[in-house]
Amino acid sequence: MTKKFKTLSRWLTPGMGIKRWLVMLLAGITILALGGALFLRDLYAASGYPPIVRMLALQALPRWLRAAIFGGLGLGLVGWSLYRLNQTVWLAFLPGEPDAAAMADRLHRARYRRKGPKIVTIGGGTGMSTLLRGLKHHTDHITAIVTVADDGGSSGRLRESLGVLPPGDIRNCIAALADDDALTTQLFQYRFAKNAETDAGAGVEGHSFGNLFITAMAGVTGSFERAVAESGRVLAIRGQIVPSTLQNVTLMAEVAAENGSVRVHGESAIPHTPYPIERVYLQPENPPAFPGAIRAILNADLIVLGPGSLFTSLLPNLLIPGIADAIRASDVPKIYIANVATQLGETDGFSLEDHVRALENHLGAGFFSHILANDNLAHPLPASWTINLVNPQNADKIAYGLVRADVIDVEKPWRHDPQKLAQALINWFQSEMQRGVR
Fold it and tell me: Whose C-alpha in 18, 51, 249, 397 is 20 to 30 A from the C-alpha of 315?
């Protein structure tokens, strides 16, 4: 009984768009029934109602009781027919035989997501895909702006051999935003391996199916940006994914070596340098931003940077002048999601303040107004690890609004939990909207 009541309450939740049409349907049926009754009355007025009609009309009973009986019967028939009609329609959207609870829950969640804020996320790598996996349950209006500076692994090989932009980070984001079709997502993320005995698969070894799919789609559609959009359509993603630029850029770094500053060429080589990173930059400098990325930023309700590799996933997007200028021009809430742990080769020994200082050194102060940092330090990393959790407790002197929340994955405490991170972000955004921050 409790489950049935909960299901009914879901159907009647304000804003679901059910009650208004149900009332209109009942009104239409009532008017139609009234017209039919008037017609029958006129038809038999002269000769009187035949006995069979009087019996079916229950004329022996009081008027109020007859009205209650026919009204209840009519409502029951309408309700049952609508229920069965909805089941028939929903067979196209839900696997198996859908019940009222599944339909109501699906409709409730879809309605909630359609009313969600327009969120722009900026970054790349596993951090971006982690955030997107959580955010897709809160809004359908997501635009992920992804770096195209990757030159390692499968993406690097495709970039070098075919001249396409690296699809790896974009592939991860497409898989993260895909509707809950686990098999399709697994297929998109499938990575080919070589059989050591037969040497089968040597040509595609190390490539993921998704990277090859996006590359092939670029050849079919004639452009990388269209290939990304069409790939997203195949997996029915919630939102859109756009590259930060369509120019073939290379990420460079200056590191503080023992005999002075040394240049490091390529995104994949930067984390392997044994020296601290002083700054990163793009070659060629000042590449044009992808217009769709700028439009999304200027139309956003919330702009989010991170989480992700500070120097190789986040900053490559912000080093594109058009992206940085659009963020500065926007007056919506802007927040930087700090990494849970330091990253070997990039941010060794960094505190939260060090992360912020690196952003300011490249972009200037005040680029974002708030920082979201993990405050659950109850799950220490193994003592043998060279990475450590980023502790926000001594960051009060940072001139930004500090948002503390438990956002870690307890099974892998060096990573964010998608649901906890997205919920913390949405909670903060809603509190900002209630305060009238714009």
Answer: 397
- By residue count, the chain amounts to 438
State the Cα–Cα distance between residues 66 and 408, nearest whole angstrom: 63
pTM: predicted TM-score of the whole model, two decimal places: 0.80
Nearest C-alpha neighbor of 250 from the set 352, 172, 165: 165
Is a pLDDT exceeding 60 seen at residue 238? yes
**N-term to C-term CA, the chain:** 45
Task: State the DSSP string of 303-328.
Answer: EEE-SS-IIIIIHHHHTSHHHHHHHH
**Domains assigned to the chain:** 2-102 (no CATH), 114-434 (3.40.50.10680)
- Element housing 73 (H / E): helix 63-90
CB 241 within 8 A of CB 170: yes
Query: Which class for 175: exposed (0-12), middle (13-18), buried (19 or more C-beta within 10 A)?
Result: buried
Contact 317, 336 (CB under 8 A): no
Burial class (CB in 10 A: 0-12, 13-18, 19+), 433: middle
What are the φ and ψ backbone dihedral angles of 281, each rounded to 5 degrees? -155, 170
Radius of gyration in angstroms for the set of CA atoms belonging to the chain, rounded to a whole number: 29
Q: Token pair 């029915």 is at which residue?
A: 236
pLDDT one-digit tens code per residue, 151-210: 888 888 888 888 889 998 999 999 999 876 577 778 888 888 865 555 555 567 888 899
Put residue 144 in one of left, alpha, beta given phi > 0 → left and psi -120 to 50 → alpha: beta
- 68-82, 127-141, 231-245, 283-297: least confident range: 68-82
Pairing relationship of beta strands 250-257 and 277-283 according to DSSP bridges: antiparallel
Please tell me the distance from the alpha carbon of residue 314 to that of residue 337, in angstroms, as a whole number. Answer: 11
